[in-house]
Amino acid sequence: MASLSLTNVSYTYKGVKKPAVTNVNCEFFPGKLYAIVGPSGSGKSTMLSILAGLDLPTEGEAKLGTEDLAAIDL
To answer: What's the predicted TM-score (pTM) here?
Structure first.
């Protein structure tokens, strides 16, 4: 089971029409090292904010284990 997972996650900032992150699916497992890479403006920081629970996705699910990050008071 993944420690952190994103399923069909999209995020659009308020007042902006174009989403910062669109339909992201990924899993992060314990004991592994990961790198999130991409060009400037591709949504890397937004994705990390969602994974940290600082922002909630506008669509899809972000989970810690089996618990939705939206249900956890971070």
So the answer is: 0.88
DSSP 8-state symbol, 49: H
pLDDT by residue (tens digit) across 45-72?
999 999 999 999 999 999 999 999 988 8
Put residue 31 in one of left, alpha, beta given phi > 0 → left and psi -120 to 50 → alpha. left
Nearest to 27 by CA among 48, 45, 8, 6: 6
In the three-class reduction of DSSP (H, G, I as helix; E, B as strand; rest coil), residue 28 is classed as strand
Q: Which two tokens stand for residue 37?
A: 């890479």
CB of 11 closer than 8 Å to CB of 50: yes
Write the single-letter amino acid at 62: A
